[in-house]
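Task: sequence design from structure.
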């Protein structure tokens, strides 16, 4: 995840967070990319490329594609450049640019594909971002957008401090002009700004005692995601340190509970550009 405006990114830009983003991309790759096919594209724009974690997947899965990554934060872009240079087969196949997604400095009809993942939740005007992406896409191009739907989060056994922390997490995004529930709105947003053949799909991680190893992995991943925001949430008094400590204890207990249930759903939309 990355930001495209002055919106304060909840997770920060530390090296620890950059490593977490790469781990997040690895964890989610199979589910996110199950129905994505950019094999006929040549030049894709990735908006909110962050540390290049998703960029690497695009380059690896679609070896004929060149990816142009856009992000506002120079520290993330530097990390993305270093990371992608180390990836086999990436040389000469990516460009990185520092710019805001709601004001792309590219000519109209430049790209033949667009990829956005975990980005619109962080921007104050997602319709403007999608409109700008549409402008720089050629007729017939496809856009793929993957976004959060945070009301779907479910954890059992009941963990009151996790819920308290999770609500503070979402409140922070809303208060800072983001949207933790934007996934459900993708169909409206894409239609509103002129895309065609808009399709949406709900993707779900649901793990119980039938797949204990995957369940534990998912909960550990989610623990890292949640606690990466703890410093900011405590500093701005959305939660106190006691809630953070108790939430971590609850997550550890659930991860080791033989009858635990974890579920989270997110949304993916695909649409076409016509003029």
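Answer:
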């Amino acid at each position: 995840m990355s930001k495209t405006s002055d919106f304060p990114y909840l997770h920060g830009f530390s090296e620890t967070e950059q490593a977490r983003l790469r781990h997040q991309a690895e964890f989610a790759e199979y589910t996110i990319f199950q129905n994505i096919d950019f094999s006929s594209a040549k030049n894709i724009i990735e908006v909110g490329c962050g540390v290049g974690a998703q960029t690497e997947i695009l380059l690896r899965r679609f070896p004929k594609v060149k990816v142009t990554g856009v992000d506002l934060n120079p520290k993330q872009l530097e990390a993305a450049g270093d990371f992608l240079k180390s990836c086999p087969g990436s040389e000469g196949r990516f460009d990185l640019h520092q710019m805001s997604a709601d004001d792309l400095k590219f000519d109209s009809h430049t790209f033949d594909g667009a990829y956005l993942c975990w980005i619109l939740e962080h921007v104050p005007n997602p319709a403007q971002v999608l409109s700008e992406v549409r402008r720089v896409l050629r007729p017939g191009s496809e856009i793929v957008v993957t976004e959060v739907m945070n009301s779907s989060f479910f954890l059992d056994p009941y963990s009151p401090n996790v819920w308290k922390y999770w609500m503070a997490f979402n409140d922070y995004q809303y208060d800072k002009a983001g949207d933790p529930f934007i996934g459900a709105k993708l169909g409206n947003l894409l239609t509103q700004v002129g895309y065609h053949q808009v399709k949406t799909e709900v993707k779900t991680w649901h793990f119980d005692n039938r797949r204990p190893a995957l369940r534990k992995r998912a909960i550990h991943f989610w623990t890292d995601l949640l606690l990466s925001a703890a410093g900011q949430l405590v500093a701005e008094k959305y939660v106190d340190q006691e809630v953070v400590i108790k939430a971590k204890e609850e997550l550890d207990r659930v991860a080791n509970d033989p009858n635990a249930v974890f579920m989270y759903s997110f949304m993916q939309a695909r649409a076409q550009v016509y003029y």
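The CA atoms of residues 35 and 268 lie 10 Å apart.
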